[in-house]
Amino acid sequence: MPEEQILRSVERALAVLRAFSPEQPELTLTEVAQASGLDRAGARRILLTLVGLGYVRHDERRFALTPQVLEFGYAYLSSRSLPQIAEPHLRRLTGELREMTALAVLDGEEIRYVAQVPSPKLLSVTIPVGTRFPAHATSMGKVLLAGMPPELLEARLRSAELKRLTPHTVTTRRGLLADLAEIREQGFAISDSELEEGLRGVAAPVRDSDGKVIAAVNVSLDAHRAPEGAVRREIVPLLVTTASRIEADLRLRTPADHRR
What does the pLDDT look like over 19-59, one tens digit per residue? Predict the structure, then answer.
C-alpha cells in the first residue's frame, strides 16, 4: 500500500490492541507504550478513546481488553459460516461424550477458539470463544500445523517461539516436526499435558471442498479418567466422524456462497 494511503492513527490504535496477550491480559500505561512502540502521551490518548468506545476497560492503573473486541472476529467468522455450521455437530458430540468440544482456527502462532460447547458435567471448565493458545502445545494447533503446505510450515517454524508450558510441552523444532508427521499419517492428534498438566486434548482436521485444512475439532478430557488406549478406540472415531459431518455441510453450503 502506498505510504500516503496509510492512516497512522489506525496503525497506532491496532498496535495498542495487539499489546495485550494471553500472557499479559492487563497492562499499565507504560507497558502498553513500550509494547506498542508509542510514547506515553500517544498511548494514553488511544487507550482512553478505546475505553470510551467500550473496547478497553480501565481499573486503577491497569488496562485490559473487553469482550467487545471479539465483534471484529465475529464479523469475519460469521461471513465464513464455519462456527454456525459446526455448532450442531459439536453439540451432538458433547451429548455423546459428555465432554467439552470445540472448533479452532490458526491465528499466527496461536489457535483461536471460534466455537465451543461446554460439558454438561457440573464441575467442568469452559473456554470462551475467542480464547487463544500456543499452537505447538495443543492438539488442535498440531492438527492445523500438520495440515499446512511444507514450505509455509517451514517458514512459520523458523520464527516460532516454542515456549515450554509444562514439562511435557514439545519445545524443539525436530520434536514438533516428528509429531506433525505422525499426525499427518494417522489423521488425528492427541496432546497429553502439553498445555496444562492433566489435560488430554484430542483433535481432528476439518477440510474445505479443496481439501485444505481450515479448522480443527477437539474434545478436552481429564487425562486421569481417559486412558490413551480408550481415547483411540472410543473417542477418535467419533471425533473424525464429527469432522466429516462438518465438512459435508461445508460442501453443501459452498455452491450457494459462490453464487452470491
Answer: 998 788 899 999 999 999 999 999 999 999 999 999 999 98
Alpha-carbon distance 98 to 138, whole Å?
A: 21
pTM of the model: 0.67
DSSP classification of residue 158 = H
3-state secondary structure of 77: helix
d(Cα 185, Cα 192) in Å, to the nearest integer? 19
Helix or strand or coil: residue 16?
A: helix
Q: Are 195 and 22 in contact (CB under 8 A)?
A: no
Cα atoms in the 13 Å half-sphere on the side-chain side of 78: 6
Q: In whole angstroms, how far apart are CA 198 and each of 43, 221, 246?
A: 40, 8, 29
Question: Residue holding cell 450457494?
Answer: 256
